[in-house]
Amino acid sequence: MHTIFRPYNSSSGQRSDRSAGDRLRHRQKVREAIRNNIADIIAEESIIGKDKNRIIKVPIRGVKEYRFIYGDNAPGIGQGGDGEPRPGDVLGQGQDGKGSQQAGDKPGVDYYETDVSLDELIDLMFEDLELPDIERKRLRQIEVERQFRHKGFRRKGIRVRLDKKRTARSRVKRKKASIKHHPGLPAPQRFPFHIDDLRYHHTITDTRNESNAVVLCIMDTSGSMDTMKKYLARSFFFLLYQFLCTRYQNVEIVFIAHHTEAREVTEEEFFHKGESGGTFISSGYNKALEIIEQRYHPTLWNVYVFHCSDGDNFESDNEAALKAAGELTQVANLFGYGEIKPLGSGYYGSSMITFFSQIQEANFQTVQIQKKEDIWNSFKTFLSKDRAREDAA
Amino acid sequence: MATAYDIEDLERWNEKIIALVERFGLDPFPQEFEVCDNEDMLSYMVYSGMPSHYPHWSFGKNFEKLKTLYEYGVSGLPYEMVINSNPSIAYLMRDNSLALQVLTIAHVYGHNDFFKNNFTFRSTRAQYTIETFKSHANRVRHYVEDPSIGLEKVEAVLDAAHALSLQCRRNLAIKKPTAEEAFKMKMAESQPPSDPFGSIHRRRETPAPDLSKVPLYPDEDLLIFIRDHNRQLSEWERDLLTIVQAQAHYFVPQIETKIMNEGWASFWHKRILESLELPQDLHMEFLVRHAQVLRPSPGSLNPYHVGMKVWEDIEKRWHNPTAEDIEEYGPRKKSGREKLFEVREVERDVSFLRRYLTEELIRELNLFEYKNRGNDQVVSRVADEENWRDIKETLLQNVGTATIPVIKVEDSDYGNNRTLLLKHYHDGRDLQLDYAERTLKYVNQLWGHDVALDTVLDGRQTQLVFADGKFALKKAA
Hints:
The structure holds two protein chains of two kinds.
Chain A: E1 3-6, H1 10-15, H2 20-36, H3 38-42, E2 55-60, E3 76-79, E4 90-93, E5 112-117, H4 118-126, E6 141-154, H5 164-181, E7 200-211, E8 213-220, H6 227-247, E9 251-258, E10 262-265, H7 267-272, H8 281-295, E11 302-309, H9 318-331, E12 334-340, H10 352-356, E13 364-369, H11 374-392
Helix pairs in contact in A: 8-9
Chain B: H1 7-24, E1 31-36, H2 38-46, H3 57-71, E2 80-83, E3 88-93, H4 98-117, H5 129-145, H6 150-164, H7 179-190, H8 222-229, H9 235-256, H10 258-274, H11 280-294, H12 303-319, H13 323-329, H14 336-346, H15 349-356, H16 359-364, E4 367-373, E5 376-382, H17 388-397, E6 407-414, E7 419-424, H18 433-447, E8 451-457, E9 460-467, E10 470-475
Parallel strand pairs in B: 1-3, 7-8
Antiparallel strand pairs in B: 2-3, 4-5, 6-7, 8-9, 9-10
Helix pairs in contact in B: 1-4, 2-3, 4-10, 4-11, 5-6, 5-9, 6-9, 6-18, 8-9, 10-12, 12-14, 15-17
């Protein structure tokens, strides 16, 4: 009988994080699964308007490993504890057998949950979406500081920027020179690196041009916008806001809430505060026009305007609203109007979509949102319309 | 972390244990122990203890799961991990106490002896285990790195192959007939039985055998069948199927002998440690640890506990038979010890429990049967006079590979359009439909043509079909 003991090797833990590659691949699969379920996840009320560091649990389907297994009508065997088990006793749910490494076990829960931070989720959501035009207004560009870039070499620097090749080369140069300088001496056995040999990369900050963009979010907060409608509108803006934040380096966002009067509000107020009153849509548009006039002149800025309302405007205001909307299409790159008509709310009152159909401008878009599952799709439609128009132009 | 012992201590105890192992007549492979930390242990668990293993995301998933469970304290790590190879390799956790290490070493020799001597492991070629897994890893990595193949393609084949890997022969000691032998068997079957009065009366008509059918006999090795009969697979795809199948074959014996194996190791570690004259403090800890491992887990089945109970019972009944035993089985020809060694060699879980799990033991182990009712699991039978046999039958369906549905290839040209016809040999347990659906899709992916599966759902003959990229369910009228 021969036995060997191999003692613990402390470096082996660091040396062989052998599952790292497989874990990474699994993680990618999870992300893929999340992306395929994104519409469901967007419809979860809890993610809207929460702070970024929050961890949300996302149910995943699609990374299960399927096999032929027995279903629910397969009986199992258990061991009783201290008490006598009696027919009819309930054991509890979905317990996995102890020896669950064995294949052919019960499937357990139908999906498993994974933790994703909101930031990560947002990245995932917008990975596939493209930016609605950014190059158009070349004159309206400003310079922004960007990434660092290599430029030249220096004798001083930090360790990570050490250029090994150049360092080695300068040592060789020095060696040659020294042999030449002392022709009588035998060539030294060892010729170590000297501090003067060291060469480092030099980096400079690079500047490049970026577009300026401003987005005006206008929301109807009148009394007719009930909780559900407001929730839908906010969800939509939430997506829009997150999208713009991820895509534009330099984007400014203005929030406008209106009922019969409009006022500029903070992000916090916009997403979380309710108000009431009648509806003058024109008030919101005029406020937007005013802000554009004062702060974001269209010669310098890409202007995007989005408005969400239930379309239930005061009759008398319709003309004014139409006129203001017309003016907005003149100054904005894209003016989107989203009408929230939850199913079952009935088509009482007017729909502004029909009314706005008088506007012929190509950069005016309307979309109707009926239920929360629509949000993601209408959001994509909004952006893709803009792109399609670009392509046609 | 400071530990109160060093390698020399382990070696000293190991020598004493080996002396006992030899005295008791155990016959293990040479043994290698490697001391590792908890991260290493997690990795070894994920990769079945192999120093080298091919990559696949499912191992990453498993790692994350185990690690989470471990970090949240839901489940601990095993004290030991031992693989069936020659020499056998076992991993000891660095942070375990000396008493636990001594217990583990003794336990490992039990497993090692079982690997070497139980008949199910004969087919595993233990002397090549490490090299085989290494070679598998190299081949898979090679395909992944091949620019004309790449990770995505390799992964797709592995995903599908993993889904079918355990749809293979269960008892590897039974030789599979070659194509030639199958042909001869079929011919022999179709011969009329020899008739001593053949000259007097007319010969009975015997139908000619259908020799064009592939396979001639239903084939249980799904992956191998697909590998050999789907001409469109490329060489590397075939090789991947071979690798997955080879690994499944390596693990089937362990699935088949879980209860026996754990019971055997527990039986011997107890015996060894009791004879080891441990100092008081170590002995106390051994008693606690032993009780923890062997504790019955209410509601499920602890293979250590069940296995050891049966082994102890066998030894007792042969060593010291009661009058009833002798009346029932005749006088004992073997001593208790001899009987143990015989059983360890020739049984696997199903036969082991069928032969040696007595009514008294079922009662003592307090076994019961449960069924699913909605989301709950409800006790349906307890071990009383009339039900213990049924409980035993259900238990036999829940050990070893009996937990995996038997599915065989019936025809590879079903409906004359290269549809692969599979048949589920229904034993009262239905397939989980959504899983069957997805798995059938994998079969379709590997087979390259339509596939169909005959099964029974809710008492009705049903055919699951995956054709033209769509899944359909046809119930018999």
